[in-house]
Write a structure and sequence with these properties.
The protein is of the alpha/beta class. The chain has 13 helices and eleven strands. It binds NADPH dihydro-nicotinamide-adenine-dinucleotide phosphate (NDP) and 4-oxobutanoic acid.
Length: 332
């Protein structure tokens, strides 16, 4: 990662974001200079849990941002912050120099990029498209092909980190594709994230993201099993969370989600339906190279059960409910 300081050629304002001291600046949108080392207008497509705070951080850093979302009302908070609005992905892409997309899944990412009135229709030489959605490598390559056929550049850049890191500008970008576009948008990635990896050819970023989320999905299931087992044998699951937090298997996720899981509360940061999507895509990826991933396969089944229980839009930690349901089922 470049320095923890964002360099501003003009007005410098100290700004604390997360634990890092940053330097940001204000810039008039007329010259479309974010003041963070990026020249040009920035488009943002998809303003869900992740897209909204990411776009918001770009606006707050002084970028000239134009937004679009399928459900238009989700644009309103961004418009209040100073964003512009365009009525389709194609119009955003044609009015901006670089366009980011943060969509739900492979289908929506492909539709927004390549469908009717999609971003590709507004692309041209000199422009760039950065897809930060979590998709599989084949979808990313398909999107990349459509975008580059217009003469524009393409970068995939899925992110590690959830709602809070997105709000705090502390995401981790897993990028691959056009290296000059990567360098061009690096100042923007640094507004939204704490680190960035450039992984080479299109597909490597998508694949890296799926591997990481496959591990995360399995870890969550194992953690849920531990909490339920401890309770069944008379231990306090809150103490289990504390013990884990001090040992070698400590992960921020356990301390963050454990206390609310014990209370059967699942405020959504990472929707369960997206975690199941990522496991499904990781299983398909493993199939292509005949790599056994039995733990992930078993975890995927539990997320599917949780979805069937109506928990798709809850946080993925709600997978614990599938284990409760299974136990109840086996006792009948
Ligand atoms: N939440 C998290 O912690 C993280 C999520 N991710 C990944 O980022 C991506 C976005 O996640 P998140 O923000 O949580 O998801 P949300 O479900 O909150 O947002 C999804 C976005 O996709 C849009 N969308 C869905 N279907 C379509 C469609 N057919 N056409 C156009 N737009 C569509 C939604 O529009 P609308 O508002 O109209 O529904 C919304 O803007 C996913 O790929 C996810 O796996 C990555 C890291 C962390
Ligand atoms: O894709 C979601 C990742 C969530 C996280 O990294 O905390």
């Amino acid at each position: 990662m470049a320095a923890a300081f964002l360099l501003c050629p003009r007005l410098a304002l100290p700004l604390r974001r997360g634990s890092r001291l940053l330097v940001s600046c204000s810039a008039s949108s007329s010259d479309a200079d974010a003041g963070v080392g990026f020249q040009g207008r920035v488009g943002f497509l998809g303003l869900g849990i992740m897209g909204a705070p990411m776009a918001s951080n770009l606006i707050k850093a002084g970028c000239d941002v134009t937004v679009w979302n399928r459900t238009k009302s989700k644009c309103d908070p961004l418009l209040s912050l100073g964003a512009k609005f365009e009525s389709s992905p194609a119009r955003v892409a044609s009015s901006c120099d670089v366009t980011f997309a943060m969509l739900a899944d492979p289908e929506s990412a492909a539709e927004v990029a390549c469908g009717a009135n999609g971003a590709a229709e507004g692309m041209a030489p000199g422009k760039g498209y950065v897809d930060v959605s979590t998709v599989d490598d084949l979808t990313s390559k398909l999107i990349g092909k459509h975008i580059t056929s217009t003469g524009a550049s393409f970068l995939e850049a899925p992110v590690s980190g959830s709602k809070k890191p997105a709000e705090d500008g502390l995401l981790i970008f897993l990028t691959a594709g056009d290296e000059s576009l990567y360098k061009r948008v690096a100042p923007l990635l640094d507004v939204m994230g704490k680190s960035r990896f450039y992984l080479g050819d299109v597909g490597n970023g998508a694949t890296m993201k799926l591997v990481v989320n496959m591990v995360m999905g399995s870890m969550m299931v194992s953690f849920a099993e531990g909490l339920l087992l401890s309770e069944k044998v008379g231990l306090d699951p809150n103490t289990v969370v504390e013990v884990i937090s001090q040992g070698a298997i400590n992960a921020p996720m356990f301390s963050l989600k454990g206390p609310s899981m014990v209370k059967a509360a699942y405020p959504t940061a990472f929707p369960l339906k997206h975690q199941q999507k990522d496991l499904r895509l990781a299983l398909a990826l493993a199939e292509t190279v005949s790599q056994p991933i039995p733990t992930a396969a078993a975890a995927n089944e539990l997320y599917k059960v949780a979805k069937s229980l109506g928990l798709a839009d809850q946080d993925f930690s709600a997978v614990i409910e599938a284990l409760k349901a299974k136990v109840q089922g086996s006792q009948q």
